[in-house]
Amino acid sequence: MGCAGSTPATKESGDGSGKDATKKVRKPKPWKHPQPITVAQLRQMRDEFWDTAPHYGGRKEIWDALRVASESEVALAQAIVESAGIIVSNADLTLCYDERGAKYELPKYVLSEPTNLIQDS
């Protein structure tokens, strides 16, 4: 028993939206920056990206969720993207969408450290 509008909504949620469309999140593959960079330089690049990310389009709350997910362990990142309604296109979080279809592209340097990272002296 329910209203006539409740049945289509249930069918839609099983047809590829929401959790059904979320891939399992995994760690990014190892990558190498064009030049060796220090931890401080990597941190600065990440801060600059996250400061400007909302200007690329999409919703700020999705960018915030992606930032927390990118800085978390894989299991927590999975829970974050699922609860925020983020559709993961690439399992390493480099390409995601929100429920409205807005695209979110994350560079590898915000997701993991390069293989040629130099410790600050």
UniProtKB/TrEMBL annotation:
Signal peptide: none annotated. InterPro entries: DC-UbP/UBTD2_N, DC-UbP/UBTD2_N_sf, UBTD1/2. Gene3D superfamilies: Ub domain-containing protein, DC-UbP/UBTD2, N-terminal domain. Residues 22-120 form the DC-UbP/UBTD2 N-terminal domain. Residues 12-23 have a biased composition (Basic and acidic residues). Residues 1-36 are annotated as: Disordered. This is DC-UbP/UBTD2 N-terminal domain-containing protein.
